[in-house]
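Please describe our next protein:
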Amino acid sequence: MDATPRPIAVQALLVQDGTVSEIGPGEVATFAGPGFVWLHAEGVGHGDSMDLPGYVPPMAANALMASETRPRCDDVDDGALINLRGTAFDTMQDSDGLVSIRVWVEGHRVTSVSRHRLAALSKVESAMRAGRITDGGDFVATLAQAISVQLDPEVAALGDTLDDCEGMLDGGDIYKLRREIAAIRSQAIVLRRFVAPDRDALTAMAQLEFDWISREDRMHLREAADRFARMAEELEAVRERAALLHEQLTDLRAEMIDQRSLAIAVTAFIFLPLTFVTGLLGMNVEGIPFARSPWAFWGVIAFCIATGLAVMAWFAWRHWLDD
């Protein structure tokens, strides 16, 4: 977690007559067109306060400034409120690595708020400066495409890493694999928690009846929603595969313990009669047979070897040594 919070950064971009320029945040509230304007505030965290422009309805303003959010989409009057989660631009130590962006969308104006920097926003800004965003529908469609494309490789990487873990089941370090698989499963659960709602939010956005959402915008929104749906399915598969691999590792560990226990039991069983013989002959009493014979020691050794070989032969005949 950062020691000192960063100040809130506010930026406003205006698209008018084919040109893109930066304007003051205060000019956004009085903007009446023609053209399209985007106001973005970054760094709004817990406990921060910011006065949103008056054109944002109170319900939408509360949602934009909420400390905890989840992906959603609602239509309010002539605008739409949509919250999405995407990959963070910077490495984050205190979260799941996903950044929430809250957007109030109107036909000629968009207001967005985020706590941390979203990686996909650079692509949205580039598209806007290139003249490919001219209304609210274009903005949301571009944002949805950028977030889904940015997140897709991260989801695919989880599956690839799990494939590598499957390949190391036979000769890998079981305890290290268990930690890696548990981390993959945890990450898949966290990602799916937001990927599935992202899909639902975009599907709802594509169904809103606003004139500024064109047919092409709806197509791009459905395409992004389909990509999120595929990622949700992949994450679900990763979670189930990780659980299955964890069970296999548990079984492998149990088999290793059984094999070691069997080896210990076999060794103990071999030495059990030998221990009895040596203990019996080692008693400090009179009358032990052949106690004064010069060949007695080697005779006992030969008897112990024969007994051990007989026990091992019996184990081999029972196929216990094969296990």
Observations:
- The longest helix spans residues 215-281.
- The CA atoms of residues 53 and 264 lie 77 Å apart.
- The two ends are 52 Å apart (CA to CA).
- Confidence is low (pLDDT under 50) at residues 1-5.
